[in-house]
């Protein structure tokens, strides 16, 4: 399993120009999807509110608790309090619409 810190470091290295990086680079869909999947700590195929908080914290959110609550409200189609694999695409789109950058 990929560690989140390793994933973020790899992504930053891939996008770092030869000179010092000045402007942040937007996350790609694949990177955001991999991040969310890597934070499914118990491997049940669902993301809990706590796992979402960790993901949004990694994405750089100042208010990760708020963003996790909003993501659940926006994306959790079946209302079970978790983001399932079936709901993951909507979660990725939700995160990308917020404009997080590396």
TrEMBL record:
Every EF-hand domain range: 27-62, 67-98
Keyword Repeat recorded: yes
Domain of life where this protein originates: Eukaryota
Gene3D superfamilies (alphabetical): EF-hand
Signal sequence extent: none
Keyword Coiled coil: no
GO MF assignments: calcium ion binding
Assigned keywords, A-Z: Calcium, Metal-binding, Repeat
InterPro entries noted in UniProt: EF-hand-dom_pair (IPR011992), EF_Hand_1_Ca_BS (IPR018247), EF_hand_dom (IPR002048), EF_hand_pair_protein_CML-like (IPR039647)
TM region positions: none
Protein name: EF-hand domain-containing protein
Species assigned in the record: Rubus argutus (Southern blackberry)
Organism lineage: Eukaryota, Viridiplantae, Streptophyta, Embryophyta, Tracheophyta
